[in-house]
Amino acid sequence: MILAQNNENMLFIVLISCVATIGGFLFGFDSGVINGTVDGLRIAFNSQDIGTGFNVSSMLLGCAVGAFTAGRLADKYGRKSLLLTTAVFFIISAWGSGVSESSAEFIIYRFLGGLAVGAASVMAPAYISEIAPARLRGRLASIQQVAIVIGLFSAFVSNYWIVNFAGASTATFWMEFEAWRWMFWIELLPAILFLVTLIFIPESPRFLVLDARNDEAEVVLEKLYGEAAGQQKLLEIQQSLSADNHQPRLADLKEKTTGKVRTIVWVGIGLATFQQLVGINVVFYYGAVLWQAVGFSEGDALLINIISGAVSIAAVVITMYLIDKVGRKPFLMLGSIGMAVTLGLLVYAFGNAVVDANGNLDLGELGTLALVAANAYVFFFNLSWGPVMWVMLGEMFPNQIRGSGLAVAGLAQWTSNFAITMTFPIMLASIGLAGAYGFYTLCAVLSILFVAKFVYETKGKELEEMQG
Fold this sequence. Notes:
Layout: H1 10-20, H2 22-33, H3 38-45, H4 49-77, H5 79-99, H6 103-131, H7 137-166, H8 179-185, H9 188-198, H10 205-210, H11 214-225, H12 227-241, H13 263-277, H14 280-293, H15 298-326, H16 328-351, E1 354-355, E2 361-362, H17 366-383, H18 385-395, H19 402-430, H20 432-454
Antiparallel strand pairs: 1-2
Helix pairs in contact: 1-6, 1-7, 2-6, 2-7, 2-9, 4-5, 4-6, 4-19, 5-6, 5-8, 5-9, 6-7, 6-18, 6-19, 7-8, 7-15, 7-18, 11-12, 13-18, 13-19, 13-20, 14-15, 15-17, 16-17, 16-18, 16-20, 17-18, 19-20
């Protein structure tokens, strides 16, 4: 239970945090909906392995561009303005992806959706971090990951329901359109809700101070924390920016004395990159293909995705309640170790499977091990790197470089995501599931060393205390 202290308007803080995290829901839904449409896209657009990989991963190029530009544009136009823009892009992408008649047209709409996902991925946690009290910042920012996995789960349930009624993702569904098209159009409902509710939230007070709109910032801060605390917080924000009397810019990411990129920026890039190198989005984007490759039917594979989604939600809820007590680094370390072990078990299962007469893998008695290990892997990821990486990126950078730091880290995150997603069908065809998952296992092991050496705790620190 989240309790207010002093004159904090906790109901208002929670409500506007939840509005911001609808962007996280759309991030998850838009990422997960592709999972059930791969067969439909392959048939509709007559694409092979590389073409299918690009249809699936084309959104991620947009995500990289969206994440990079959002941080910089948010420093110029505001956090709220960028979130409103993302909502419009989500609507256009959801509609256009469903009406596409060719790979080129589909890729354009998915790229626009990627711009929205990338922008929302960095702006929603940043916005929440900038309006939340320090003692609850981790918990409130973790709602973003809860929203992401609920979005993923909703996409899996929606895809399963549509396929269950239509018979297959390629079959004709409602109003004579194929089922896979409706999987995209369902997203229009939350996207429109996001656009409408964003109108009623305030601008980030820390952006308002950056933009020299101190009177507006004071009004927002007093509404959030009460009159006395709001005025004190305004003074602290102004003092944290006093040494840099200019608008934020990318050059701020370098040390003034040495000219080298600040250490905190490299840590942000490392966090963003390792979150993807462990292969989590292969499960989210290609889950149905993966389980069909080892002998499950399309319907069973989509049902397994629903189970994984439920496990994800349970894990993130645990983190949400404990992150401000336990801290960020312990969760990252536990997650890295857990993922290394469970990915290793998947490598063992896939490596010892036999190939049947049709050329498909048959797990046999190892099927249970693979299912348990896969869901344990999803659990450990969503207990740790899933929510904690976004929490840390939203809070670890000083006020002056938050937008620029998020831009660079977001670009690294989505570029890594694109590389992992684009290469999976190729790896599947060349070195098999065991080889692909062996690479993700190695990355999980390396992430243990990264956390131990480079990641520092940010629990309970005010944003104005972040040094970088």
